[in-house]
Amino acid sequence: MPGGVAVTRLPLEQKFLGPNPSPATENPKTTKRMLDELQTYQQWIEKELEKPIKEELREYHKQKILEFQHERLIHLLVTLTIGIALLISVFATLFTHQFFLYILDGLFFLLFIPYIFHYRGLENGVQGLYKITDKLYKKSI
Fold it and tell me: Which terminus has fewer CB within 10 Å in the chain: N or C?
């Protein structure tokens, strides 16, 4: 794949989504945001719940939850790091009153707010996947 990243699918992904990666994963410039991917997956799995449930679907769903949980953990760590840096910067500003620290406070604040909203979206999305997991297991019983 010229200039792109080769994407291989797990066997379960190949079974449910086909052997070829989607155009969104082939070209890094068109890669979906994680929240969009989460929403797309939730819609897809909801449609799959209308069909008879197979063990492979449950295994695939477990794998996708693990992927989204990992993404959520990484964003939690980044959000906490930015939040701690913001607090340190604010306290340093309160004690020293140096102009560049006011600028630093503003930059950290502008970075922190979008991370909070993004993390909230990931958290709510993963919680939604847990509800889908319950539906998946109730239907397969």
Answer: C
